[in-house]
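Shipment paperwork, digital attachment
Item: protein structure file
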Amino acid sequence: MNNQQIALKLMSVPGLGPRRILNIWRKFKEIDQVFHASIEEICSVPGIDARIARCIKSTDNEDFIASQLKILSNSPFQMTTLFDQSYPPQLKNIYDPPVILYHHGDFSDRDHDAVAIVGTRKPTSYGKSLAEELVKGLVGQGITIVSGFARGIDSAAHKSALLNDGRTIAVLGNGIDRVYPPENRELRSQIVANGVYCSEFPFGTKPDATNFPRRNRIISGLSLGVVVVEAGQKSGAILTAYYANDQNREVFALPGRVDDLKSQGTNQLIQKGAKLITGVDDILEEIDRIRKFPVKSRQLQIEFKLEGEEKAVYDVLSNEPIDIDSLAEKLKKSPYEVLPTLLTLELKGAIRQLAGKMFIRVT
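Attachment content:
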């Protein structure tokens, strides 16, 4: 099997997500050896129990693999796996890098210097204008712009990068054979000509709401830092900032009016440690420092009430460390559904993350 077939087969195994696959790769010198290993050997991989080991040995999803490879061979799209040397190096270093990147357009060494610009889908003229100016200044310094291809600030960031002869990477919450939002069809073609249009989701995946929080870790993972422009308290852009903080990326925020709901999230980020920016020089100063002296980002501590999903997750935690996969199983959710809540609780100071993505209560 080649790397594409191996990655597709592993991703089709129930209960086997990116982190566990990364652990398998670290255990076996050749990743395909896992299919020939004993149950006992597979269970020696962190996070793998007997049930998952048996699934690895028995799962037969040849139809899915064949259908994905057929679409790939009959399209301009490409598939880069975690096991390939061409995989983006910054993304490979996050806790749970996507095992497969479906993409249209080529990743470049120039993308090692990248900054994410994210924000509300319904920006004010002030926010949109400032985002465009920030992008213009960044691409003028050879920095690639990463964003999520959504309406509003995301689309404005992509368009400004292209308008100013820069590179941009769009990270999707659906398969790359679909265009969402539909009005961005022409923008997709423009991005492919001078950047990358990419997703971890298989061909045919619809833009379901649960996909977008998961893709946000890729936006921050591809970047040296994340700039949040106009975002409410529960905006997906704030979640991207959480991921950035978790991945030791720098977090920047553009201040807004105190009475503007679209700036409540960004203003709170600034209160709790994000770097306040008034222009592109504030970003460039930090990016230059990061290039020379990589250091751990400031820990943000945004206050939230402990209720709903946050309370449900907190109640399952105790003083005994538990890994995210086991916690997700207890909550009958996927790790990607649980992680945003864990990050919120951690930033609040209610829980603490230990080595190996283990979590315990603090209060």
